[in-house]
């Protein structure tokens, strides 16, 4: 059975749902999948002790940046990731990727440029919409919510429910990413 390591970073949990769906699709396709949020994982060397034929790296984007732990993991283990017999997929979850134009921009700005800087050559990349949580149960603090609300009011008036959760993840695109990665294995 082919093994895939799916490693991701998230700040508020939206990327976790994406990673879970990708892992679900790959498992249904017969792959053994290790899925880890790098924020909760410490022993990264163990990942490379097993023989993975594929690695998927993903992150939520905030202010144009991957999560710090995800960036550090990639930088520290770049030589292990670029092994020629390992297929690589990369994705981000961000507010920019709410429509086709935004998806193209997010892929270029947050995945392709990042991969190129680190000498990574993924077989597939993707950008998925994120979650804006303005609900009372939001993990965002009051100040952060006020800042986000002012930005979305200005940039996309009327598009957001400023009192609830706004989920822009496109599950069809996420499943398609996983299926395409599986086909490349």
TrEMBL record:
A Gene Ontology BP annotation from the UniProt entry: heme biosynthetic process
A Pfam family annotated for this UniProt entry: Flavodoxin_5
InterPro entries: Flavodoxin/NO_synth (IPR008254), Flavodoxin_CS (IPR001226), Flavodoxin_dom (IPR026816), Flavoprotein-like_sf (IPR029039), Protoporphyrinogen_IX_DH (IPR052200)
Transmembrane regions: none
Single GO MF annotation: menaquinone-dependent protoporphyrinogen oxidase activity
PANTHER family listed in its UniProt record: PROTOPORPHYRINOGEN IX DEHYDROGENASE [MENAQUINONE], PROTOPORPHYRINOGEN IX DEHYDROGENASE [QUINONE]
Protein name in UniProt: Flavodoxin domain-containing protein
Source organism (scientific name): Promethearchaeum syntrophicum
Lineage of the species this protein comes from: Archaea, Promethearchaeati, Promethearchaeota, Promethearchaeia, Promethearchaeales
